[in-house]
Specification:
This protein is mainly α and 109 residues long. The protein contains four helices and no strands. The longest helix is centred in the middle third of the chain and has 23 residues. It is elongated and about 45 Å long.
Length: 109
Amino acid sequence: MSYKQYQSLTEALHECMVACNHCYDACLKEDHIGMMVDCIRLDKECADICGFLEQAIVRGTPFVKELAEVCAKICETCGIECKRHDSDHCQKCADSCFKCAEACRSLTS
């Protein structure tokens, strides 16, 4: 399958990766960083898997569905954690994570 057939997924992955990296950086600057540890960790995990899956799709990986399943789980977990925090960057990140999880799950259902 051509990577172009996954264009909406790669766009969601890229958007989520950017949002998670931004949230990661912003959380590191929070006054109460101890409360942000799980958010920071999950932001990094999510950004990494989204970036990896986006690149793997472009390379033509035969494991798109398997990787998308893992990515959806990580994105959803990150979204749930980010939603717990009031910061604008966390709320935007959560929205991107949920959108990406949905895009990933559309391949696996």
